[in-house]
Amino acid sequence: MPPSFRKLAGQAATAAGFPAFSPDACLINRYQPGARMSLHQDKDELDLGAPIVSVSLGLPAIFLFGGLQRSDKPRRYRLEHGDIAVWGGPARLAFHGVAPLADDEHAVMGKQRINLTFRKTR
Q1: Can you say whether residue 107 is alpha, beta or left, with left for phi > 0 and alpha for psi between -120 and 50 degrees?
Q2: Using CA atoms, how far apart are residues 44 and 23, in angstroms rounded to an integer?
Q3: Region 4-27 average pLDDT
């Protein structure tokens, strides 16, 4: 992982109240108009005490953030190019996803959204 990515994720986590976060993995998801990600939990990491840091690039997306049960109604947050979302602590296992991406075009990224998700897997 490039040092600049690790630094960005660490600074975002610190600003959100999770100091000393040092990710060792970056998952990259690419969405095109119509693509979505169903509600899920990120629970494959060994250290569930570490937060998740998510960076949005390109087209805006509606981020769905629910509760600890899949049946909990999720809140909807619009994420724009450059937005960073951080969650951890009691919310670490909240169900979350992405609503279908609207058909649009970003001035720099075109007809796509790139999401970088930083995690501590070990």
Answers
A1: alpha
A2: 14
A3: 95
